[in-house]
Amino acid sequence: MADQRPNPIATKLYLQRIVLLIERLWLFVHRPMMVLGLGLALAWSGLLIPLPKGFALMIFSSLGALFIWTLKPLLGLALPSRHAAARALENHNTLAHRAASSLEDVPVAGAGSEELWQAHVERNLAALKTLKIAPPRSSWRQFDPLAQRLPMVMAVVIAYVLGTGDIRSNVLNAFNFGPAPLAKIAVLDAWLKPPSYTGKPPLLLTSPAMLEKLTSNPDLTIPENATLSVRLQGAAAPKMMVLSPSSTDLQVTLAEMKQEEKDGIFIAEAKLDRPASIKIFDGEKPLATWNIALITDQPPTITFADEPKGNDFGKLSVKWHVTDDYGVKSVTAEINLADEQDKAMGFADNGIFLYSAPEFKLAMSKPNTKDDTETSTADLSAHPWAGLWAEMVLTATDGAGHTTSTPPKRFKMPERNFIMPLARALAEQRKRFILSPDDAPDASTMISAMLLYPFELKDRFGLQINLSRINSQLAKASHPDDVVAVVKDIWPLMLSVENGNLNDIKTQLKELANQLREAMREGAPKERIDELMKKMQEAMNKLAEQMKKNDPSKQAQGLKKDQGPSKTVTPEQLQSMLDEIDRLNKQGDTDKAEQMLSQLDEMLQNLRPGESQQAGGDQPGQGQMDSLSDLLGKQQKLMDQTQRLGKGGDKGDAPGDLANKQEGLGDQLGKLGDGLSPEDGGDKLGEAGKNMRDAEDALRRGNKEEALRQQNKAMRNMLQGMKKLAEKMGKDGKGNQQGNSQSPGNNDPLGRPQRSHKPGEEPDRNLVPSDLTSKRAHEILKELRDRANEQGLDDETKDYIDGLLKGVE
């Protein structure tokens, strides 16, 4: 009957049994947990990694067996009885008379009244309505009286927090009983590349020689803005730190600094724009340290080596000096009008400001020079500012972009002094309407009066018509731009009035000189050289006749009183130059002959009508011809340098340097040919420019043969274009000359002895070359023959060398 009574505390008894099971579980698992903690501490700490794999296997085997043995008591673990749970409830709730455990009791049969037993049970149940579950109690003191659990817990925590490497790798390595993997070797490459303008070679910081040097002294001194490149392969945790030289922990950022890791390769690059201490690490392990100090790039210096000087023909010469620590990249000049003119400030009219400043180019004979003194010259006679005070500022720029400018240098713009009365009068009126465009009608009236009886334009109808046309434009000018156009167009007519037909003969002589120079360079046959020399002699005779027609006494009246002494070009000098060129050519010394031809060009440019007068100006386009001739010589020199590429022991320029020179020549040719029509040779000069660009491209690709081929084509096209331009110049501005009177006496108008055409009466000349000259000529011929016999020469190169040999063997 007792089993049928409901038990109101059955749930509490079951929960209390669970609590008692947990208390017993602590007793059975503390030893397995101690063994497991010991194994984790050994695995996480990384202490077993350097040990032999057999020893580590033995340790873990022993720990495994011990762990299994400590689990044996768990086999007898069972859920505590209801009676034990009831006793726990009685003890926890301080119940007397076994109030909870007695509920399971039953009365003895026949021992008493059943009503009395029922009353006893109900009284106990009423007392158990507020029973509370006894919580689990720790029994560590019973089975671990020495508190061995505490050092074990500390060992596990310390191994987890302070163990070397990461936890996962340590555990895997601890239980990896196979052969140890090969350790990765970190490979570091680092180099410093100074800026290209310094000309300094790169430094390999990881080379054996540099490593030995850095061992004793880790300090490096390099040009600023050098580029640091680092490449680290095989490192587990690569990183680069850039520290301030004065601190061990203050990090700084360099210009253009970047770091990345890709496919296991760490790459870093930075521009060193400040001193720094650079450290490379693999994790916490330092791999390299470089203490870098910088050499500051100093700005260039530029000064006027002398005062700007002008001559009577409008040519300005400026001597300048420039220096830089690594080399000057470019020099420029800027000209501006000075505020103070002759005893006055400013200008009475704004007409002068209609014209832009003249362009004055400065050229360095040696690119990227560190110390150079040069003299630059430009013909500014045609510029409207001629005769006015101006200021010039020179600016030098180095490879780093630093610039330095001089203080403004005050000077007077050179002005051409005309001799012929009409030319001088036209120059005065031109300056008048330059300064004041409103005076254009009055200036036109004055020019019209000059043209009523133009004695100096006799029989030169084309020049008369052109002057009249331009004067009409001046009279009808209604806008300042109309006056600006007349200022430009009247200048070449003034030069034509000044020089008369002398320009035509000078142009012919200069063209013949260019042809002779070309023939010498190409090794033309002797017959061709003699033909050109004969034509030059005939042109010289025509020059004498033209100079005779000018009246020296009238020309002398045109000289200004303050003109002072001047350098003269005498007939003897011209003839001596021509004879010397002929002699040098016959002796095979073409280099000196070409130098003499250049001097002859200069003397012809300084030749003016009249007796003992200063150098005159050129006709329109002549400066262009001179520039083209000079450019042709530079192209020939560059072709020779290209031919020597790859020769053993040659210390010449690299292909890239020659390509840069070729690019510069191409730019010059483009400027010279700009605006020229096909009739003026513009088409051929354009083709030559294309050849130069192709040659530049071939040099950059290292194709020597193609570069020579294109350079040869460029020279041929330039010569054809110059020939067209010369023919056009010969046609422009020509008039008719009459009279052919002879100079009295035995000398011609140039002061040369008349040829008698009788044997034995010619001036004695030593036609036998000197020993030194002959020796040099034989050396040149030998060198040419040796080059012609080289194996593997392409057809273009053979043709080039054969052309040099023609006419000299």
Structural class: alpha+beta
The coarse overall form would be elongated
**C-alpha-based Rg, rounded:** 53 Å
Strand content: 5-15%
Give, in spatial order, the strands making up the sheet with the most strands.
2-1-4-7-6
**Biggest beta sheet attributes:** 5 strands, antiparallel
| Fraction of residues in helix | 40-55%
Spans of at least 5 consecutive residues with low confidence: 1-6, 551-568, 609-620, 733-777
Q: Between the first and last Cα atoms, what is the distance in angstroms?
A: 151 Å
Number of strands: 19
Total tally of structural domains: 5
Average pLDDT, to the nearest integer?
Answer: 75
Count of alpha/pi helices? 23
Gist of the model:
With 809 residues, this protein is α+β, with helices and mostly antiparallel strands. The chain contains 23 helices and 19 strands. The chain has five domains: 2-174, no CATH class; 187-295, Sandwich (Immunoglobulin-like), CATH 2.60.40; 301-412, Immunoglobulin-like, CATH 2.60.40; 500-731, no CATH class; 771-805.
